[in-house]
Design a protein that fits this description.
This protein is α+β, with helices and mostly antiparallel strands and 305 residues long. It has five helices and 17 strands. It has two domains: 142 residues, Probable inorganic polyphosphate/atp-NAD kinase, domain 1 (Rossmann fold), CATH 3.40.50; 135 residues, Probable inorganic polyphosphate/atp-NAD kinase, domain 2 (Tumour Suppressor Smad4, Sandwich), CATH 2.60.200.30.
């Protein structure tokens, strides 16, 4: 019996209802269907009393989900998509992302279009777009104390955010550099349209094999964003006496103590998006962010009498 998975946002009634309805529909077509919530991919926030809440990357795979699944549905918004990939990327399961929220920058279709989309997927009429992810790890000395998969970005900053930090950043085998800023963003091309864009970083098309580093409000005109090959490992040491806060994809984080250090690598897993048509990244930029739209009326040719 073919297998399908559904991951849904359990705090949105419309997503909960859709998950149950599509489980029944798919089962009636002879599929074995497993359900899981997006909560399973949220690693949780730490507190000063409990600075580390360590959950190994591979342990987030939901029960009953396995690599034999043909595909899975993600019902929710961008947060659900990020959580779903954190759960499913280790299995390599392609994900059809369905927007039941607002922006839905990472989603492929809308809930009211899902019947037609499912007909297309079940007929095998789709492409799979693979996007790079980051493996973010925190070490105390040489001991791993925290880790997470990242599709968008890792952010390291001080509390409060407006306090300036000093970082020593190493990229690959290059000599470390010092950066003074409110924080640092390490972003994938997918994340280039998220926090790093708001912080002044460039938009990078998803297929480019790079990572970018964006200082948040740097204290020097010389500290600009940097784009480099995604095979380069990044290490970050804090030069501050106070703890820092690290956030991954906006929904998981931990405290980074002065003696700790952070490392990011290209993850061994890929986020596999089901595309119902050939990906058109610039079209998504126009529709979701207004990129390239005219801001003034263009003159028209007028024939003089």
């Amino acid at each position: 019996m073919p297998k399908v998975g559904i991951i849904y946002n359990d705090i949105k009634p419309v997503a909960q209802q859709a998950a149950v309805e599509w489980q029944e529909k798919l089962m009636s077509h002879g599929f074995e269907v497993s359900l899981a919530t997006g909560v399973g991919g949220i690693l949780g926030y730490s507190s000063p009393e409990r600075p580390i809440c360590h959950t190994p990357i591979d342990s987030l795979v939901p029960p009953q989900f396995d690599p034999d699944m043909l595909f899975a549905l993600a019902l929710g918004g961008d947060g659900t998509v990020l959580s779903a990939f954190r759960q499913l990327a280790p299995l390599g399961i392609p994900l059809l992302t369905v927007n039941t929220g607002h922006m839905g920058f990472l989603t492929e279709t809308y809930l009211n279009q899902l019947p037609q989309a499912m007909d297309q997927v079940l007929a095998g009429d789709y492409e799979v777009e693979e996007r790079a992810m980051l493996a973010v790890t925190l070490y105390h000395g040489q001991t791993l104390v925290w880790e997470a998969l990242c599709l968008n970005e890792m952010v390291l900053h001080r509390e409060p955010l407006t306090s300036m930090c000093h970082f020593e950043v190493g990229i690959g085998r290059h000599a470390p550099v010092d950066i003074a800023a409110d924080g640092i963003i390490i972003s994938t091309p997918t994340g280039s349209t998220a926090y790093s864009l708001s912080a002044g970083g460039p938009v990078i098309t998803p297929g480019v094999p790079v990572t970018q580093l964006i200082p948040i409000c740097p204290h020097s005109l010389a500290s600009r964003g940097l784009v480099f090959p995604d095979q380069e490992q990044v290490t970050i040491h804090s030069a501050n006496p106070d703890p820092l806060v690290m956030i991954v994809d906006g929904n998981a984080g931990c405290y980074v103590m002065p003696e700790d250090w952070v490392r990011t690598d290209k993850a061994p897993y890929l986020a596999r998006f089901i595309r119902l048509r050939s990906p058109e990244f610039f079209k998504v930029l126009r529709e979701k962010l207004g990129w390239g739209l005219p801001h003034i009326a263009k003159p028209t040719s007028v024939e003089l009498p």
